[in-house]
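[audit] Reproducing an earlier prediction to check determinism. Same input, same settings, fresh worker. If the tokens differ from the archived copy the diff job will pick it up downstream; this log only records the rerun itself.
[audit] input (165 residues):
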Amino acid sequence: MKYNHTQVNKIGIALVLVVSVFSIMSTMAEHYEEYVPQWINTAGWNIWGAVIVGLIYLLLLNMMVLRINVSKTEVIWRFGVGIPTKRIPLEEITSLEMVTNKWWYGWGIRKLLSGGWLYNVYGLQAIEIKTKHGKIVRLGTDEPKKLYRALDSMVSNDSTEADHG
């Protein structure tokens, strides 16, 4: 069973909109001083504000979307524009488990205290994948049952084919 799903972080989109408003206000500060709040219209804000806003904007754009694909041979996941893109060959997977992350694990890419890595854009549900090399990865998803079924069916098929091949 192939699987292809894109999860969007709606809060991330809202933050990008807020950042965009501040970016526009920063640009306006230089030319339309009377329309911009005084705390924005201070010396140096335009340069440093533009740099900070630009960096935050790029980070948010990249972390707003998580794509997970399960093919016949591997599971691939990537954020936003594809940086980073990670993959695990199905033949290396030894176990799968539906898990609920603690709220403080957060979103984005995190090293977990358990030794694994979490890739998550929103929510608490995830699939924990363990490999024969000891690697542990948690993929956050808003479709935990579908992702689990897809991975489980492909991992089971892969091990069955290896036994008979």
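[audit] rerun output stored. Observation attached for the diff report: The longest strand covers residues 93-100.
[audit] end
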